[in-house]
Amino acid sequence: MRYVSFLKDGKQYLGVREGQAIRVIGQASLEDLLSRGVDLATYGRDHASAETVSTAAITYLPPLARPPKIICVGLNYADHTRESKYEQPDYPTIFLRVQTSLIAHEAPLVRPHASDSLDFEGEIAVVLAKGGRHISKQDALACVAGYALFNDGSVREYQFKSPQWTVGKNFDGTGAFGPDLVTADELPPGAKGLLLQTRLNGEVVQSASTDDMVFDVATLISILSEAMTLEAGDVIVTGTPSGIGWARTPKLMMKAGDLCEVTVEGLGTLRNPVVDETTA
After folding, report:
1. Which CATH number fits domain 70-276: 3.90.78.10, 1.10.10.10, 3.40.50.360, 3.90.850.10?
2. Among 57, 133, 250, 271, which residue carries the largest CB count within 10 Å?
3. How much of the chain, in percent, has pLDDT values that exceed 90?
4. What are the tens digits of pLDDT across the range 20-56?
5. Which of 223, 220, 228, 244 is nearest to 82 (CA)?
6. pLDDT for residue 270 is more than 90
7. For residue 234, what pLDDT is reported?
8. pLDDT single digits (tens) 87-142
């Protein structure tokens, strides 16, 4: 199943994608369904209405607008670690995103007026159906509801103002998420072996296999659960490969008028124009 959260006539809906149309389920949310323990692999088939809407007639929303936690993983592709001039850590590099940084498919990525160093990071996001503590690696993938695309837009100047990356990763309008949540049964276990590419204005700037992750999805879930209680609806953003603009000479930062796209086999394409922040 491919779930789409969207606005139509000022109201929020959930639906399942059928080609260029969306079959409406109703005014439910994925957060609510996951908190209730619903099996997303079958729910859409059993509860979708007869009503369909065209994708041209909707405004996309992030698959989950207010997930309990957004846990991001840095330095999870060795080639990206090398281009960033770090030693490859033997433990995942973890930071958090806030809900207010999220935007949907086709919504603008916002370059803040405080800095011109907005960079792209194409990634896969994991959405949990259930969680807990001390989850074994063998049991971890059973916790996954599905996967979505993510562009971890990073304001590099602010990311490196301190040893902690949090501020540079949390400017409003920089975390693109969507367009669909694709249930885990439609992809290889752990989303392994998929081609991930980021394009800026049509040019491929990042390209890698998800097999290149240093810590795979099951490992990340298990390690995270050593420290914190994972919950249904939590989002884990799994890291980006090499090719970021900050590591290039000259640097390739996103600017107003650009179009950034993240594509992964089986997940589709997340597309966002870039605009400058407006001030009152």
Report:
1. 3.90.850.10
2. 271
3. 98
4. 899 999 999 999 999 999 999 999 999 999 999 999 9
5. 244
6. yes
7. 98
8. 999 999 999 999 999 999 999 999 999 999 999 999 999 999 999 999 999 999 99
Is residue 280 over pLDDT 80?
Answer: no
For the beta carbon of residue 219, count every other beta carbon within 10 angstroms: 15
pLDDT at 200: 98
| pLDDT value of position 230 | 98
Q: Which of 120, 273, 81, 268 is nearest to 206 (CA)?
A: 120
Mean pLDDT of 150-169: 96
Q: Which two tokens stand for residue 31?
A: 């957060």
| Residue-range domain boundaries for the chain | 2-60, 70-276
- Burial of 40-72, coded b for 16+ CB within 10 Å and e otherwise, reads beebbeeebeeeebebeebebbbbbeebbbbbb
Cβ atoms within 10 Å of 160's Cβ, excluding its own: 14
Residue 246's alpha-carbon distances to 69, 80, 124, 249, 250, in angstroms, are: 27, 11, 20, 8, 8
Number of Cβ within a 10 Å radius of residue 202: 7
